[in-house]
């Protein structure tokens, strides 16, 4: 069984739990549309002084005009309901840098993809 996790999923998982890396991320750094809107909504909630929880995220998503399907809601609930494991927390900066490098068209180091 493969235990790999995409850098995008690892970073959004960290962001949802307030473990944002020092790198300046934006929604544009994510390729998956769901992760883009999740990132924007989580940022908007925090900027407004609200906690990022299942109910507040679902409300924020709908307020943003995004109506997640069942599979997307399950994924969001799973990520919000479980804190990122130590391997993700410990590598959040490297994984975020991998997203920044990819977005800028720079080469990504393979070790940044393996967490």
Characterise the protein shown here:
- The protein is mainly alpha-helical and 115 residues long.
- It is built from six helices and no strands.
- It has helices at 7-16, 33-47, 54-63, 70-81, 86-103, 110-113.
- It is globular.
- 30% of the residues are buried.
- The mean pLDDT is 85.
Key words describing this protein structure:
globular; mainly alpha; 115 residues; 6 helices; 0% strand
- Give helix % range: 55-70%
Instruction: Classify the secondary structure makeup into a structural class.
Output: mainly alpha
Distance between the termini: 15 Å
Anisotropy-based shape: globular
> Helical segment tally?
6
Radius of gyration: 14 Å
| Strand fraction | under 5%
Q: What's the main sheet like?
A: none
- Along the chain, the helix and strand elements come as HHHHHH
Mean pLDDT: 85
Tell how many strands the DSSP assignment holds.
0
- Low-pLDDT windows of residues: none
What's this entry about, in short?
With 115 residues, this protein is an all-alpha fold.
Map the helices and strands.
Blueprint lengths: L6 H10 L16 H15 L6 H10 L6 H12 L4 H18 L6 H4 L2
